[in-house]
Amino acid sequence: MAICLICREARSDSRSAGAHLGNTFFDQPDSLTSAGQTTGATNFQQTRGSRDSWSIFQEVRVPVTGPTWNFPGAYSLELGYAEREEWYSDFGDTQRPKFDVRWQPIDQSLTLRAAYIEAFHAPSLGELFSGASQSFPIISDPFTSEIQVLQILQGNKHLQPEVAYEYTYGGVLTPGKWWSPLQGLTLSADFIHIDLRGFTTVLDPQF
Fold first, then answer.
1. In this structure, which of 64, 77, 100, 169 has its CB flanked by the most CB atoms within 10 Å?
2. d(Cα 206, Cα 133) in Å, to the nearest integer?
């Protein structure tokens, strides 16, 4: 279900949406594969997991000034706020906001923008519940050159969600609005910094 309200210039815009997602992950190998008694194939064990999640998203955009206002130094200034709230059957609930600003100090030829965003990513059912499986990677050994080793990959039920904090700054320049020979040229640049915490990965066998 989604509700969207579109308003005219100089009025705030808002929208919201909600969703429910149910996931089930199940894999049952035969008894020989599960016991690791096969050759010429990859042995793996049973996988079973499930999750329900509910989410709500809302966004509000508020124009502080607009082109018709003729406000010095603020041809257009717009503030935005968004938030996503999620409830997980296995991780509880989380709320993550986004703040952004869009500023045109002179006219449409120059746009400056910035945002602060928080993100949340729960481990996948495979990362949590995958049964043990075999792999045979090749690694480099300084004493025996390259050798093939046995690697066991398995889900980790103790994984915690990944959390990220993002800062973005940037701008768009359209110089053709000031000088006609540059008509059609658009320059844009953005700086993005992401602070990712609790990163989930698989260690390389060489490590």
1. 77
2. 18
What would the pLDDT profile of 14-66 be if each residue is shown by its tens digit?
Answer: 778 889 888 888 878 778 777 777 776 677 777 888 899 999 999 999 999 98
Inter-CA distances, 201 with 66, 119, 154, 193, 197, Å: 46, 17, 12, 20, 12
CB-based contact 164:119 (threshold 8 Å): yes
Q: How far apart are CA 55 and CA 84, in angstroms?
A: 7
| Amino acid in the structure at residue 94 | T
